[in-house]
Design goal:
By secondary structure, the chain is α+β, with helices and mostly antiparallel strands. The protein contains 5 helices and 5 strands; from the N terminus they run H-H-H-E-E-E-E-H-E-H. It folds into 2 domains: 44 residues, no CATH class; 96 residues, 2-Layer Sandwich (Nucleotidyltransferase, domain 5).
Amino acid sequence: MPKPVNQRCQQCALLSASEARQKACWDSRLCHKRRSFYRHKLALAQTNQVNEPVPVLDVPLPDTVYAILYRYLIEGNILHAIAAELYRGDQLIAKTRPIHCGALTDRVLRMYLQSVLETFTHHSSTSVALFREMVDLPLSRHPCPVADCHLNPTHRLEELL
């Protein structure tokens, strides 16, 4: 634990050397070092308080182009529908129509997703080789995006009317 600050020595450090020597407490063995210590400590404290706040710089991010794949899943992780979106930075620049995947085989689905990426590459004039994210959306919480799907609540409402 550090020693407490000696208030008398701290006040003496503010005086000139000749004024400090005239004080009754002056000890030539100790006082020179203590005065120097307290003077430097005070100077350091003042410079720390005077420091201006550090400026915060806004560095613009490069416009990155990326694609996101949305997978609509039925219970048991069965793929029901997919949709994709293309972004530049945080701005949506294109998206695909959602499609049902029930009749598609794995091979056909992979070919479709590859053609989506090629279309996005052509549209953005920037290479989009992979989907940055694949977002899984369970149909129990999100309606099917395909308008004429029997799992879409708006389609069910139209049938009842």
